[in-house]
Amino acid sequence: MLNRFRNRTEAGQLLASSLMTYTHRTDVLVLALPRGGVPVAFEIAKALQVPLDVLVVRKLGVPGEEELAMGAIASGGVLVLNERVVQSMGIAREDIARTATFERKILQQREQLYRGNRPLYNVKDRTVILVDDGIATGATMHAAVSVLKQQQCAHIVVATPVAAAQTCDELEKEVDSVVCLLKPELFLAVGYWYEQFEPTSDDEVRRLLEQAATIAPSQSDPSA
Known about the structure:
Elements: H1 8-16, E1 28-32, H2 37-48, E2 52-54, E3 57-62, E4 65-74, E5 78-81, H3 83-88, H4 93-115, E6 127-131, H5 139-150, E7 155-162, H6 165-172, E8 177-182, H7 202-215
Parallel strand pairs: 1-2, 1-6, 6-7, 7-8
Antiparallel strand pairs: 3-4, 4-5
């Protein structure tokens, strides 16, 4: 019985075995949430022989209560707002714009760091396997899902080695399917479920993305 993962590589390999129906499909793209999701997603993309990219998402925190998300931004100028939070908290549009501008600078820096000159992925009408190394509250994953929906993704699969059971239940209502190997009721923290859980470096993210580009053809051409 699986209790813990040795590291992100093993977790990705085990997760890939539950996703083999997507092997060699030309409409499939694996997107990782950096940084920790990239080593997991790399093993999935390699096993399925499909392209890998990163989905850089920045949560827009409510001014003064940054842990509460009022929306998110992502690559390609995508902005998603949680209108319920915006209206209930009476957040001014200029405050939203100010927060988005600040977070967009950070996002662009991360994009350049990870992707370099490679063009953005194109998810429209494609099946996206969205990967992270673990999901606790799911705030970032929920934001990523919202972004993909706005970009008219055809089919969304959330794939993660471990997630809080309640978070999995919530995500299953938002996406087409959730593939999760461990769903502990007492979650504690993502790192608890790994024997080795060192931080993933920016250099490792770049290296894995470059290596993945040699394994499967890119589908990142915006005109595709």
